[in-house]
Amino acid sequence: MKHLLREYVDIRLKAASGSTLDTAMAGSVEIHDHLWALVSAAAKDRPIQTPH
């Protein structure tokens, strides 16, 4: 997951610095979806507790 987060941040930074926006957004969405899938799978095993 750390690798995906680093890659996600790198893509977003490139987009902000003038990289091809369409390419950056496509990569960003793909990683974002993968991260959510990982979190969803983990939450099924162990529900996420929110602070009170």
Give the topology.
Blueprint: H1 2-16, H2 21-45
Integer-rounded radius of gyration: 14 Å
Q: What structural category arises from helix and sheet content?
A: mainly alpha
By DSSP, the count of extended strands is 0
Topology as H/E string?
HH
Number of helices: 2
Helix content: over 70%
On the 0 to 100 scale, the average pLDDT is 78
In whole angstroms, the N-to-C terminal distance is 27 Å
Q: Biggest β-sheet, characterized? A: none
Query: Low-confidence parts, pLDDT < 50 over ≥5 residues?
Result: none
| Outline type | elongated
> What share of the residues does DSSP label as strand, in percent?
under 5%
Question: What is the structure about, briefly put?
Answer:
This protein has helices at residues 2-16, 21-45. With 52 residues, the protein is an all-alpha fold.
Q: What does this molecule look like?
A:
- With 52 residues, this protein is mostly helical.
- It contains two helices and no strands.
List keywords for this structure.
52 residues; mainly alpha; elongated
